[in-house]
UniProtKB/TrEMBL annotation:
<comment type="similarity">
    <text>Belongs to the class II aldolase/RraA-like family.</text>
</comment>
<dbReference type="InterPro" id="IPR036704">
    <property type="entry name" value="RraA/RraA-like_sf"/>
</dbReference>
<comment type="function">
    <text>Catalyzes the aldol cleavage of 4-hydroxy-4-methyl-2-oxoglutarate (HMG) into 2 molecules of pyruvate. Also contains a secondary oxaloacetate (OAA) decarboxylase activity due to the common pyruvate enolate transition state formed following C-C bond cleavage in the retro-aldol and decarboxylation reactions.</text>
</comment>
<dbReference type="Pfam" id="PF03737">
    <property type="entry name" value="RraA-like"/>
</dbReference>
<dbReference type="InterPro" id="IPR005493">
    <property type="entry name" value="RraA/RraA-like"/>
</dbReference>
<comment type="subunit">
    <text>Homotrimer.</text>
</comment>
<protein>
    <recommendedName>
        <fullName>Putative 4-hydroxy-4-methyl-2-oxoglutarate aldolase</fullName>
        <ecNumber>4.1.1.112</ecNumber>
        <ecNumber>4.1.3.17</ecNumber>
    </recommendedName>
</protein>
Length: 219
């Protein structure tokens, strides 16, 4: 579970700033969409792999620890692997969210639900309950690999996956990005241009010369 200090750090940034701080961040396919009222997720992955059968997801809801985020590799199939009852059950157990690379249903309830829920599809047809599936193994969700215990972060921009031992540094780096953006916004609000706050001329000149360069904020 993330510490209270890390939770506070994440509240001050967003997934875009984290991605700006590190271009190697694993980002789930944008087809994995928010379905619930609450977008923000920050918790360790509890992984599930199943195909056309949601028994493993039910097992995960009842097995995962408080704060865990269910990451379901459903193979991207358009079949519901969870719905209202699973969201309610996850809330009772204080889970951190449910992400399904597959279908979710009962959206009339889920769209107002306080549990963060993401899925690739919305569909009324549910899977079967005859296969055990697999829990807490490496899975693929939204086109990226997710390992048990990886940290899952999500907001209105999307879902990302971070190695636990890098999260403190990344959140600090993201905070620095947000601070620099705030300074540029303040400049723009006074009538300055983007070029007044970025090394745009220097950067493009260097690139035209074939020299390495990085676009950056001017402080």
């Amino acid at each position: 579970m993330p510490t209270d200090q890390l939770v506070q750090k994440f509240r001050a940034v967003d997934t875009t700033a984290i991605c700006d701080a590190d271009k190697s961040i694993r980002v789930l396919d944008s087809a994995i969409r928010l379905r619930s009222a609450e977008p923000r997720i920050f918790g360790p992955a509890f992984t599930v792999r199943c195909r056309g059968d949601f028994l493993a997801v039910l097992r995960a809801v009842e097995t995962a620890a408080p704060g865990d985020v269910l990451v379901v590799d459903g193979g991207g199939a358009e079949i519901a692997l969870a719905g209202e009852l699973f969201a309610r059950g996850a809330l009772v157990r204080n889970l951190g969210g449910i992400i399904v690379d597959g279908g979710y249903r009962d959206i009339a309830y889920v769209r107002g639900c306080a549990l963060p829920v993401y899925s690739r599809f919305v569909t009324p047809m549910a899977g079967t309950t005859a296969q055990l599936g697999e829990l807490q193994i490496p899975v693929t969700c939204g086109g990226v690999e997710v390992y048990p215990g990886d940290l899952i972060l999500a907001d209105e921009e999307g879902v990302i996956v971070v190695e636990p031992d890098r999260i403190d540094w990344l959140l600090d780096a993201a905070a620095a990005v947000k601070d620099a953006e705030a300074e540029l916004v303040a400049l723009l609000d006074t009538g300055s241009t983007l070029s007044d706050g970025l090394n745009l001329t220097e950067h493009t000149t260097a690139l035209n010369r074939g020299e390495p360069s990085t676009l950056r904020f001017l402080s």
